[in-house]
Amino acid sequence: MKSSRDCPNAKRRVLVVDDRRDARHLTKCLLETMGHEVTVASSGGEALAEMKRSAPDVVLCDVIMPGMNGLEVARRIRTGFPQVALVAMTADGDDQTRRQAEAAGFDRLLVKPVGVDSLRKLLAAGPGATSS
Q: Are residues 111 and 91 in contact, defined by beta-carbon separation less than 8 angstroms?
């Protein structure tokens, strides 16, 4: 039997990590409308705990958060869950931010506001195809 990782149009398990409630809610609703199973976390600590509970295929993580920032979240996720697709979301998509995100273990960086088409293409490509 094929897993969701083998079927590009399959429903994905997605974890959305963002300290901003409105951004979390909007992204969650949008992804659910696309047919994906979505969990959310408002901090790095919550994200790490949720990784164990929901075993997502894809993590969409804000980079700039208070406390544990998205770069540290990515490093910790990579240590325990090397197979998950990690996607950074940030308002700052300059070269330095991209290098930092890549060094932390992110597969891809999306610049906020993230468009519907960008999310749809990212998830349709499958978790293993997040690099651009």
A: yes
Place of tokens 């300059």: 94
What's the pTM? 0.89
Quote the strand ranges of 36-83, DSSP E. Answer: 37-41, 58-62
pLDDT digits (tens, 9 = 90+) for 31-55: 999 999 999 999 999 999 999 999 9
Residue 7 lies in a domain: no
Flag whether 21 is in a domain. Answer: yes
CA distance linking residue 50 with residue 20, whole number of Å = 17
- Count of domains observed in the chain: 1
Contact yes or no for 57/12 (Cβ under 8 A): yes
Tokens representing 48 are 């790490």
For 105, phi then psi, to 5°, come to 115, 5
